[in-house]
Amino acid sequence: xxxxxTVAILGTLRSFRVTFLSVAGAxxxxxxxxxxxxxxxxxxxxxxIEVGTFATNDGEVPxxxxxxxxxxxxxxxxxxxxxxxxxxxxxxxxxxxLQNSSAESIGQTVSMRSIVNPAAVAxxxxxxxxxxxxxxxxxxxxxxxxxxxxxxxxxxxxxTSDEIDRQIADYGKIMDRLSGLLPEAExxxxxxxxxRGAALQQRAAAQAEDGNKTTAxxxxxxxxxxxxxxxxxxxxxxxAQSTRDVTMLRARHDVLAANLIEAQIAARAFKGTRVTLxxxxxxxxxxxxxSSLLFIAAVxxxxxxxxxxAFLHNFAVTRD
Length: 320
Hints:
Strand order of the largest sheet: 4-5-1-6
Distance between the termini: 24 Å
Order of helices and strands: HHEEEHHEEHHEH
Structural class: alpha+beta
CATH topology of the domain at 157-268: Helix Hairpins
């Protein structure tokens, strides 16, 4: 049964071999021509920029997140650049191809890609250059603002630090004065205590008629000693409070010194945004794509030829 079917098929092919070859050949020529016309050589235009950074305690921070910039390119910068090209007279077909330009970020680098016809390479380069120029202008302005802010912080921290230094120096003078007054007050207190002790002894040994005068002297010494004790307490409290104030000022000074160093580093450690790859073009090979499509076209041509033979064979059998 299988042999008979094979013989029948081969017989049909012999009968319609001219038709088979004609249909297969014509179909392949048409498909191949369509593939060659539609699959034209193209060029890849690409460029890249590196986003600038500034220094903080946590390390280098980008002036703008690269991934955010990559999203803004097709959403903001690309339409503006295409509008500018349209006003300069670029063809609509070229503008349509340029609208498919894309951007992506890798680390601090943001790259742009445009796949266009080789005839539109100049327009693609101009488009990317316009985008780069706009980004560089905005990043430069952002960098200037941050640099000025860092310089202003440096001045403010320095002025505040100098003011605290002056306050600490004033407290130092006060504490030196208190340190001199306290020994004097303590010496005077001891002297009055000795005088009072001597007066008490004198009263005990004095005669009755002198008792009133001695008692008055002792009362005066008692009041003077009480005053000296109050003065000594005030001086001690003043020195203790001054010591606490100086400790707080020094702690604040240390914080300000760290902030000042950070601001100085930030003011000096700016790294501006730069172009790492100017717009350049490179051809995209089309040989492999054309070869695969031509192979598919050859298979399709053979199948169409088989279908045509089957149709003609059935038509002939039906007529007979």
